[in-house]
């Protein structure tokens, strides 16, 4: 089923077919804030009213031309302007293939540097999302290069990848902020753990490394057992609740998000928006086949 959803994520024609079904429309609107920046700002403001921060993601990846990558960079800069003018508690997440990673490494590097500089001028932060394993080395290279000049850029580590412990140690040495996730891509056994138990075990190991560091990191999961392990580890090591944050996806476990915020933990919700929402949504379903049932079970929470 996972392979099927990942295949469908690449079939834009299926999007138009699926939108004929009310359940698909309802699910997609639940997990995508909308197609415009106005929609995303409204979602961020609603989260702020619950004591929850936001990170906005203009959906889009694998741009096909240098011009498209430059256009994406301009649109991302506009997000920082709106955040500042609207005074919402929010930062921005980006994908490097949207900025030309697969087309022109130098162009992508310049786009990232300009975006990070633009964000810094507005006292904000940019998180570079991690994509499939073919992008991992180049993503880390560009993030570390940019961080040498601008320290308001961070990235993501996927616990499903076998290389992630080594990458985490490297990023910690360079004092680069990390968002820890499980991973949403179909990878071969040589590159990634195939069993959920192995991915979860690695997640907990990496979580402990992050919390013991003196940097501010993000633990991104909806898994209540891992959230509990994180809380217990923090308590047993006298780690303050404002030393790290939990992150969750827009539309998933809103009850858990608000409960953690009320208990004094920092919580941030990942808010995707834009016209190119279909691949993102299908990957959410593809992460685990059980997510289809999980989403249906949590639809009205």
Outline the structure in words.
This protein has 301 residues and is an alpha/beta fold. It folds into two domains: 57 residues, no CATH class; 234 residues, TIM Barrel, CATH 3.20.20. It is built from 13 helices and eight strands. An eight-stranded parallel β-barrel has the order 1-2-3-4-5-6-7-8, surrounded by seven helices. Helix 1 runs antiparallel to helix 12 and helix 9 runs parallel beside helix 10. The longest helix is centred in the first third of the chain and has 21 residues.
Major β-sheet profile: 8 strands, parallel, barrel
Strand content: 5-15%
Helix/strand order: HHHHEHEHEHEHEHEHEHEHH
Query: What strand order characterises the main sheet?
Result: 1-2-3-4-5-6-7-8
The number of helical elements comes to: 13
Report the average pLDDT across residues. 90
Architecture (CATH level 2) name of the largest domain: Alpha-Beta Barrel
Which features would summarize this protein structure in a list?
8-stranded parallel barrel; globular; 2 domains; TIM Barrel; 301 residues; 52% helix; alpha/beta; 13 helices
Helix and strand topology:
Elements: H1 2-9, H2 12-18, H3 22-31, H4 37-49, E1 53-58, H5 66-86, E2 90-94, H6 105-121, E3 126-128, H7 136-149, E4 153-158, H8 164-173, E5 178-181, H9 196-212, E6 217-220, H10 224-236, E7 244-249, H11 254-262, E8 266-273, H12 278-286, H13 290-297
Parallel strand pairs: 1-2, 1-8, 2-3, 3-4, 4-5, 5-6, 6-7, 7-8
Helix pairs in contact: 1-12, 5-6, 6-7, 8-9, 9-10
């Amino acid at each position: 089923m996972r392979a099927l959803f990942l295949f469908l994520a690449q079939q834009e024609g299926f999007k138009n077919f699926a939108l004929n079904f009310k359940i698909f429309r309802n699910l997609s609107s639940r997990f995508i804030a909308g197609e415009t920046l106005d929609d995303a700002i409204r979602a961020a403001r609603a989260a702020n009213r619950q004591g929850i921060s936001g990170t906005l993601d203009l959906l889009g990846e694998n741009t096909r031309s240098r011009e498209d990558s430059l256009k994406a960079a301009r649109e991302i800069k506009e997000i920082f302007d709106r955040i500042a003018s609207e005074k919402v508690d929010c930062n921005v997440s980006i994908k490097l293939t949207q900025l030309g990673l697969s087309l022109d490494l130098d162009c992508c590097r310049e786009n990232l540097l300009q975006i990070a500089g633009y964000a810094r001028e507005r006292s904000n932060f940019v998180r570079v999302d991690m994509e499939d394993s073919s992008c991992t080395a180049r993503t880390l290279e560009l993030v570390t290069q940019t961080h040498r000049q601008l320290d308001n850029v961070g990235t993501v580590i996927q616990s499903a990848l076998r290389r992630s412990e080594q990458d985490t140690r490297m990023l910690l040495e360079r004092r680069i902020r990390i968002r820890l996730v499980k991973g949403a891509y179909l990878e071969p056994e040589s590159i990634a753990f195939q069993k959920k138990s192995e991915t979860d075990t690695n997640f907990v190991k990496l979580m402990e490394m992050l919390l013991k560091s003196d940097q501010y990191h993000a633990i991104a999961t909806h898994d209540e057992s891992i959230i509990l392990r994180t809380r217990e580890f923090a308590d047993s090591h006298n780690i303050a609740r404002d030393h790290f944050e939990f992150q969750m996806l827009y539309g998933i476990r809103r009850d858990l998000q608000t409960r953690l915020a009320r208990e004094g933990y920092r919580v941030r919700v990942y808010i995707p928006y834009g016209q190119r929402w279909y691949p993102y949504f299908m990957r959410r379903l593809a992460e685990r086949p059980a997510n289809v049932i999980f989403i249906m079970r949590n639809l009205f929470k």
